[in-house]
Amino acid sequence: RILAIPRAMGTILQTVDKYSDLSHDSSKSCLPALTSLIGNLSLHPEAGQLLSTTPALPPLLTTALDTLTPDLYQDSEFPTALLTALNNLSFYQLSIESSVQLTRSLVNQLLIPSLSLSLIQQIVSCLGNLTRILD
Questions:
Q1: Which of 30, 39, 51, 124 could form a disulfide with 85 if both were Cys (CB 3.0 to 4.6 A apart)?
Q2: In 3D, which of 109, 64, 104 has the Cα closest to residue 85?
């Protein structure tokens, strides 16, 4: 139903962009909720396709993934929400540029020694989705 609301997706994207700087305290509380919203919306085929083909969104989320620090993995729900959103979006046809950038970021995340098994599973699932795109 959110797709029927004029400018709803634009508003979501602007809000994500506004809070994408993780150095602000307000970002640490808002961004997990926003990424969860994107992850949930992307489960709907029409919304997921729209979100995955929005030029700014996959790179924005990938950049947020690149800025995660090991302490955020331990104390935050944001990595789980972010990886879930990226995993759901990677099911759809991302651009080649976004797919390559996301693949590099995910592989780099696997190098973090403190990752939980559930986060590793999310990363591997996302990489599995990306192999369909990169073929």
A1: 39
A2: 64
Q: Give me the tens of pLDDT residue by residue for the chain, a chain 135 residues long.
A: 666 677 887 888 788 777 776 667 777 778 888 889 999 999 989 889 888 888 888 888 898 899 887 777 776 788 999 999 999 999 998 888 999 999 999 999 999 888 889 999 999 999 999 988 655
Angle between helices 25-41 and 57-66 (to 10 degrees): 130
Q: Which helix (H) or strand (E) holds 2?
A: none
Amino acid at site 88: N
- Dihedral sign (CA 28, 34, 37, 39): negative
d(CA 90, CA 65): 14
Task: Give start and end residues of each alpha helix (H) in 19-116.
Answer: 25-41, 45-52, 57-66, 70-75, 78-90, 96-109
Please give the Cα distance from 22 to 66 (Å, whole number).
11
pTM for this prediction: 0.85
